Amino acid sequence: MPELPEVETIRRGLEPHLGGRVLERVRILHPHVTGPRPGRDVARDLAGRRVIRLWRRGKYLVLDLEGTAAHPRPAHLVCHLRMTGRLTYLAPGARWREAAAHTHAALHLEGGGRVMFHDVRKFGRLLLVPPGELSPLLPRGRDPLVDGLDGADLALALAGRRSSLKALLLRQDLVAGLGNIYADEALHRAGLHPARRGGSLDGADCARLALAIHEVLGEALAAGGTTLLDYRDSAGRPGGFRVRLRVYGQAGRSCPSCGATIQARQLAGRTTAFCPRCQPDCV
Ligand SMILES: [Zn+2]
Question: Would you call 280 a catalytic residue per the annotation?
């Protein structure tokens, strides 16, 4: 599933093509993609709106849209890619080569160019909402890139909590944007066992974990994200961070820091990889 670095990579790729542009015509090809609102209604409502801004919170992308004569209220188009969603920009005249069965929406831009929404598993959504209905859709936790995240923020988020660090880092109401990959990678870099209780961390642990989260997100972003299978950026390119993963997906291999064998176990319902030597289970 795309996590913060992948969604931010897509946002940065789309911004020069979408910012300030008018959605001339929109086609919704599969009804489920617009949630409870019928796709045809959403397509009509979107047509003619200008994109003011494209921003991100956690794993969500949001397009701020101006009103039109037909629909004078401003609106937001909220996009969540879930498991396999992709947003791809096609320049004027470029051909779309993906299967029609997996192509769920096309946003045609005034003056040429299209943004295609493609999703094999069909869990991704494009929700059009008025301003008052936006915030309940978005994660409440701190987004490390947007809001900042330091040791004190983490100490506050984890205080008194008995759940495992892995479970807590996946909670989008605590830290927005981390998923299975970057939670495992950040815990390894911080030398913290994923099963350790959140409330057992001291100030130094929290500071180290906050730093590790920033490091791994920053490096993944610089590499254009991680492609395991489906993820592509807005130009259709895979991310380059996979070869730099230290523990995620590496069970049975040697830890790049100490040489011990990486282990995997189920935590919070997710396969969790860690190094038993670098990440001692001390609590
Ligand atoms: Zn190790």
Answer: no
